[in-house]
Amino acid sequence: MSWVGKSLRRKEDDRLVRGHGLFTDDELGEGMLHLYILRSPYAHARINSIDTSAAEALPGVACVLTGKDVLEHCDPYMQLGPGPTAEILDYSLARDKALYQGEPVAAVAAETPQLAMDAGQLIDVDYDMLDAVMDVETALENEILVHDNIGTNQTWNGVYEYGDVDQAFADAAHVVKIDRLHFHRYSSTPLENNACVAEWTRHGEVEFLCNNNFAGFAKQLLAPGLRLPIEKIRVRTFDVGGAFGNKIWNYVYMALCALASKKTGGRRVKWSEIRTEHLLASGHGNERTYLDTEVALDGDGVITAIRSRHLDDCGAYTRYEPLGCVIFSQVLAATYKLRNIRIEMTQAVTNKCPVVPNRGYSRMQQLWFMERVVDICAHELGIPADEMRLKNYITDFPYETPNGCVYDSGDYPKMLDMAKELVEWDKWVAYRDEARAAGRHVGIGIGTTLDSGTNNFGQAQIMNPYLPFSGNAEACIIRLDFDGAVVVTLGTGPSGQGHETSASQVVADELNIDPAMVTVRSGFDTNWNTFVGHSGSYASQFAVTGLSAVHGACQKLKAEMRQLAAFMLEASEEDLVLGVGDEGPELRVKGTDKFVNYWAMSNIVNNNNAVLQGELPDVTLNVRHVYRPPFKVPDVEKKFGNLTLTYAAQLHIAVVEIDPATSRVEIKAYAAVDDCGTVINPQIAHGQVHGATVHGIGAAIMESFDYDETGNLLTSTFSDYCPITSVNTPDIAYGNIETPSPFSYNGAKGMGEGGGAPVHTMSAAVQDALHGAGVIVTDSFTSPPRVFDMIRNPNRETAVSVDSR
Amino acid sequence: MYPAPFRYHRAGSVAEAIRMLGDIGEGARALAGGQSLLVLLKVRFDEPTDLVDLARIPDLDTIDQGNGEIRIGALTTHASIARSELSTAIPIVGDCANGIADNQVRSRGTIGGNVCSGDPSCDWPTLLATLDAQVHCEGPDGKRAVPVTEFVEDLYATVLGQGEIVTGISFPTPAVGSAGAYVGFKRCAPAYPTSSVGLQLALNGDDCEDVRIALGSSGLTSIHATDAEAELRGKTLTDDVIAKAAEAAAAQAEPIEDQRGSEDFKRSLIDTLVKRGVGVARRRCAGETVEVSHEYY
Question: What CATH number is given for A155-187+283-458+634-804 in this structure?
Answer without folding.
Answer: 3.30.365.10
